[in-house]
Amino acid sequence: MRDGRAMMGDEMTDHEGRCYELVADCRVRAATDLFAHTWDPVVLAALRTGRRRRRELRAAIGGISDKALTDTLHRLLSSGLVDRHAHAEAPPRVEYGLTGLGQSLVEGPMRALGCWAVEHGDELLEAQEDAARSGSADPPG
Question: Would you call 87 exposed, middle or buried from its count of C-beta atoms within 10 A (0-12, 13-18, 19+)?
Answer without folding.
Answer: exposed
